[in-house]
Design brief:
mainly alpha, globular
Amino acid sequence: SAGQIISLVVGFFTGVSTGATVIISQYFGAGKKEEIEESLHTAYAFALVGGLVLGIAGIVFAPQMLRWMNTPEELIAESVLYVRVYFSGLIFIFIYNMGAAILRAVGDSKRPLYYLIVCSVVNIILDLLLILVIPLGVLGAAIATLIAQAVSAVLVTVTLMYRTEGMKLCLSQIRMYKRMLQSILKIGLPAGFEAIMYSISNIIVQVSINNFGVDTMAAWTAYSKIDFIFWMINSAFGISVMTFVGQNYGAGKWDRIRRGTKICLGMALISAVSVSIILMSAERFLFGIFVNDAGVVEIGIRMMNVIAPAYLLFAFIEVFSGALRAQGAVVVSTLITMVGICVLRMIWVTLVAAHGTLEQVIICYPITWAAGALAMSIYYIYKQRKIFQAR
C-alpha cells in the first residue's frame, strides 16, 4: 500500500519531467543554446518547488491515504512511518529524476545509470546496517532510501553544474521562465495525469487484492518486485524513443524519426517476450527470494501466469506514445491511455470482477493493455502521417 502511494506521487512528477526531456531534446537537436539554458533552470526550479510541496502533503495525509486503501490496522503504524520518512526526502527524488531526464534529453543516458548504481549500492549497504546491525526495522529501510536518494540528487546536480557539454546549471539562475514552464507543462502535465490515473487504477486493484487477505497481499508485493524488471526495461525504450525522436524532430530529420521508432518497437517487443519467458521459467526461484511460505508462492505464480504473457502488448503503448509525445502530440495519446487502460481497468475491478476470483480481478491488466495497444497503434499511424504531411 505504501508503494502504491509513492508510485502515485513519484509517477506524476516523472511524467511531468518528460516535458523537460522533450523540450530540451528538441532545442538540442535544433542547436538553440539559450533556450536549452532557460529550460534547464526552469525544470530544476519546478523540481525544487514540487518536491517541497508534495513532500509536505505526503507527510500530512499519509494515514488517511493508507486507511483509504484498506491497509490492515496492524500494518498502519509502520506504513505511516515509512511513507512519512520517504516523503521527507521527496525533494531529492524529484531533483534526481529531473536531472536524469535532462541528461538523457541531450543523449547522456550513461551517467544517470552510474549514479543510480551508486544510489542502489548505498541503499543496500545502509539497509543492512540499519536493519540487521542497528535494528531500526521499517524506519531503517526508510532512512536508507532517503540518504541514497540524496546522494543521487547531489551527483546529478554536480554533473549539470560542471561536467555537461552544451549546458551549465547555475544555482543562482534557477528560476521559472514563463515561456519555458508553459512549454514543459504543456507536454509534461498530460503525462503526469496519465501516471496519476495509472496509480489510481493500480490502487483500486490493490484495494481489491487486500480483500483476499494478507497472504495474497504478500504475493502481490513479491510479484510487484519481479514485475518491476519488465517495467524498467519497457520504460527505457519509451525514454529512448522520446529522446531520439525529439532530437531528430528539432533537427528536421523525418526519415530517422520513422525508422528509429520502428527499430525501437522491434527491440521492445523482443525484450518483452524474452522477459516473459525468463520470468515464467524461473517463477518459483524468483518468488522464493522474497517469501518462504509455499502458499504465498503458489498465489504469486497464479498472478504471474495471468499477467506476464501479455507484456508484449504494452510495448506498442510505450513506444508509440513516447514517439508522439516527442513531437508534441500528447493530448489524444494521453486520453487513449487514460480511458482505454486506466478507466477501463477501474470499471472492470469495481463492476465486472467486484466479487470475483483473484484471476478475474488481475486479468484487467492484459485486457486493458490489449485495448490500449490497439487504439494507440491506430492513432500513431494516423497522426504520424499528418505530422509528416505538415512538415
